[in-house]
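Annual report, structural modelling task.

Input specification for the flavin-adenine dinucleotide complex:
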Amino acid sequence: MRRTIFAAEHDDFRESVRGFLTKEAVPHTEAWEAAGVIDRDFWRKAAAQGYVAFQAPEDLGGAGIDDFRFNAIIDEEAAYTGTAGDGFALVNDIVAPYLLDLTTDEQRERWMPGVTSGDIVPVIAMSEPGTGSDLRAIASKATWKGDHWSLTGSKTFVTSGIQADLVIAAARIEREGVEGMGLFAVEAGAEGFTRGRKLDKIGRKAQDTAELFFDDVTVAPENLIGEQGRGLQLLMKNLPQERLSIAVTAVASAERALEITLEYARSRNAFGKPIGSFQANRFSLAEAATEVAVARVYVDRCIEAAVDGSLTAEEAAGCKYWTTELQFRVIDLGLQLHGGYGYMEEYEIARMWRDARVQRIYGGTTEIMKEIVGRSLGL
Ligand SMILES: Cc1cc2nc3c(=O)[nH]c(=O)nc-3n(C[C@H](O)[C@H](O)[C@H](O)COP(=O)(O)OP(=O)(O)OC[C@H]3O[C@@H](n4cnc5c(N)ncnc54)[C@H](O)[C@@H]3O)c2cc1C
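The model returned the following structure:
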């Protein structure tokens, strides 16, 4: 079905993103996977092309383009080309809204030029060893010391945590007269801020993921992002876009998996015929193709809703869980139809399979997404 959400400027943008990723990312994917981290030069090159935090105003190095369709195009092209890493989704879709919408002019001027040039990698640290789904149980605490905050606690599973130059950490506030949480910006090099090991994941191997530790880190009052005590509400406000971003990747990955599986099923023979011509396989692929097409229409509708500001938390949650579950099913079918070759690292479907698994977990698990949808049903 023809997509209807894009204009000519989006199509041109897609073409340039695809060309850039094909030239600058695809040839290095294997090396980045082996290193467990993406080359910083690549990130600077992407930033020089205007692909990083382009929502920022021009005087801060961005393009002033606040249109989620451009974000979606980068996410989709990263999935279609098999580009390693989650950097674009992390910075453009998840962290930029915190840095642009919740910050003061002074904070934006301090951080955004570095973010848009690729010199500052910003990350978000909510999850902790003791809690992920239940953000209210965050134990990191920020204690007011009269003229600064003291931040103490541990974070885990932080995407780009090894490369991070600026960490937005959620912490419980300990200050007389203030209840709730706050978001604190910690710059690399701050005394008491250390990184743990690079976590050894089963997939998304080129993307570094890390533990971060804060031991009585001094945080200046001007590094508080948004209002003190409202950290949880601020996280909740931005999570729908994070979930849509994951859904966009999910559908694009499912489309890519379907494409390579169809090619394989047409060309691989067994018992004298292409494996795709057996009715069982043809039916499975027909079901997958139909479900992916349905998902595509729903995600596109959610992208439109994000653009006009009407995407609800429930719509984003439903979209995230349904598309990521579908992504995994379609990729698993694709791997099965590749037979033994599907289990071999040199086959794209194998990498897609191990990379897909986490989509049902991060950004809020499928179970938590169903809770969010369920709560809206008046049950
Ligand atoms: C590769 C990767 C990258 C990540 N990147 C980041 C990042 O950049 N920043 C960040 O802050 N976090 C990040 N995360 C953390 C991620 O968001 C959490 O792992 C996720 O939210 C789940 O939290 P948890 O791991 O603590 O699981 P838990 O919350 O302990 O959940 C364990 C299981 O219990 C289930 N469960 C929990 N509560 C309920 C309930 N009420 N009803 C039914 N079932 C329930 C869950 O669905 C899950 O199946 C990342 C994680 C991974 C793996």
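The pocket of flavin-adenine dinucleotide is lined by residues 124-127, 131-133, 157-159, 201, 204, 209, 358, 361-365, 367-368, 371 (CB under 6 Å).
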